Amino acid sequence: MRKMRTKQLVVSTLLLASSLYGGNSSYEFKTKSLVGIEGGYSDLNYEFGTSTNNVISDIGVTNVGLKIGAETDDFRVFLSGRYFYDSSTKYEYIVTYGAEIQYKFNMAEFMNAYIGANAGVANVQFRATGENFSRTISDPYVGGDIGVNIHVTDSMDWEIGARVMSIQADNIRNGITYHINQITSGYTSIIFKWEMD
């Protein structure tokens, strides 16, 4: 009987203590939801030809994107989609879908810097020089990004950054290889943010 009462007392004490501790916790995640609209200029690096006759080149494209995510005091995560526009019409489309995770350095009240990693899938359709057919690539990419956020208001940031997405994808037809190396981007974004309930 005494053993049973002791158990009940211990369990009651633990339940009471845990409810009091939960109510007075000083450690809480302060998270914000994020939506960003991005624009930038990118350089797509590629190689074209055979193993004995290979041309290394690049092409400049503009890009727009949308990203949705969340942040804490130290981290940000995004799901993102980007469209890259080639004015030369060599590339019929370049689209990427992916995610980014970034660590923030809170340097001052009005701004922070960040460094992060990204990964996703790049979908590309293009027509190589001298060919009358289109080639397609749908391959994963990995990379990194770095930049700064300037806090314009409590609910809006202005972001300036640079990003590298390493694709390393091959399309081989008729004995000729088209290899896409990476996309290097300079970009700016407007990030809208609000506190999550």
Could you walk me through the main structural features you see in this protein, from its secondary elements to its overall organization?
The structure is a single chain. The protein has 197 residues and is mainly beta. It has one domain: Porin. The chain contains 1 helix and 8 strands, in the order αββββββββ. It has one helix at 2-23; strands spanning 32-49, 54-71, 75-85, 91-108, 111-126, 135-153, 156-173, 176-195. An 8-stranded antiparallel beta barrel has the order 1-2-3-4-5-6-7-8. It starts with a helix and ends with a strand.
Index terms:
single chain; 197 residues; mainly beta; Porin; 8-stranded antiparallel barrel; 1 helix; 8 strands; elongated
Summarize the structure.
The protein has one helix and eight strands. The protein has 197 residues and is mainly beta.
- Specify the CATH architecture: Beta Barrel
Kindly give the count of domains. 1
Chain-averaged pLDDT: 87
Residue ranges: pLDDT <50 for 5 or more in a row?
13-26
**Percentage of helical residues?**
10-25%
CATH class: Mainly Beta
Write out the strand line-up for the largest beta sheet, numbering strands in chain order.
Answer: 1-2-3-4-5-6-7-8
